[in-house]
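Bug #77: duplicate submission created two jobs. Keeping one. Sequence:
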Amino acid sequence: MKRKRSFFERLTGNVNMDEDEIFEDEEKTIDEIESEESTESEGQLGVDVYETPRSIIIKAMIAGVSPESLDVSLSREVITIRGHREAVDNVHENDYYLRELYWGSFSRTIVLPQEIEMDEAEAIEEHGLLTLTLPKIDKEKQRTLYVKSNSQD
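Kept job's structure:
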């Protein structure tokens, strides 16, 4: 059986070496197994997601990641943030006393609570904080459609 990694382990890449490890005993679908295998070497980006009356806001700490190395893909209902954080020091593994920072590839896919206007979405990075503003689709909004006539009189 494969041990289920905790949120902290996925975020930081650390491995818990406790003997009281918790094992998953439920069966998984092939899609779930393939999804885990494809992201096994990636860290999971921590996010805050909240809404305002007009937008869904997603915030993520991406300190040490240049905006050019971020890939933000979105549809009306799902958003995926991918990136890579490069370690700049060439420190040998045996020289570390404590290693909690995550270096390497990371990603996070979020199913949005409501459909968004993709063309109006905005991404801003400031001091290592990525803020995505995703305007909600206004389902109450109405417009008048004018009918044109192609008949010749």
